[in-house]
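A student in our group prepared the protein record below, which I am reviewing. I have pasted the whole thing underneath without changing anything:
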Amino acid sequence: MTHVAWPRSRPHLPFLRRYARALTGSQAHGDNFVRATLETIVASPESFPREVDPRLGLYRTFHAIWSSANIEEGDEPTNSIDGNEGIAHARLSRITPLSRQALLLTSLEGFSNEDVAYLIDASPEDVESLVAEALAEIERQTHADVLIIEDEPIIAMDIETIVRDLGHNVTGVAVTRDEAVAQARKAPPGLVLADIQLADDSSGIDAVKDILAEFSVPVIFITAFPERLLTGSRPEPTFLITKPFQRATVKAAISQALFFDTATVPAG
């Protein structure tokens, strides 16, 4: 079964990393859970769900491990290499883990309510209620000053509208690395949304690195090629949105990034 389950699941692995990182607020912590998922598949191939498609089976295996971890506030996760987890644990009481999972699975990962119900052992009606609970928490979330780094005017306007509709303030829209750094210095942001490729062939990743050298701020990257930044082999983004994106995806990512309220580490 190993030679069947793993190859069929492998194309979905980058997106499981994206989900795990968003769920935990940390590349290190999220990737640890993904690694444990793969080890479980290899060690017990007969336990891999056969009755569903490989992506559902992969996420189902992940959730079995996540649910059994029983992370308590104040616990130190295994193999932690950053400080995000302590902040996450301190804030778990503000929104239940299941509601966060349901929101991310539907909005970020695009699963249907029925699929999410299978993944978290709930009913579709329960999933709908959990998502509503998470969205209500978003409405109560502290508003932030947001810097947008995006060189495509239509996309930048779309993101700006979403950000403002969520009640956040847009401090500026930068189209190059230098402009992004200058705007961050002029008005330090509480959140950065950054495209990867910018107008002058400069890099949004480099712009974020420059900003993080001076400010501690959560970052969400936006790219049409998420697989390239989800290899698990180097420091990579914790929060990542795929182009073209849905409004709900941006909303969920912003909420989750602000939930952990700490700087993410960009790809190098």
User: Anything to note?
Assistant: The mean pLDDT is 83.
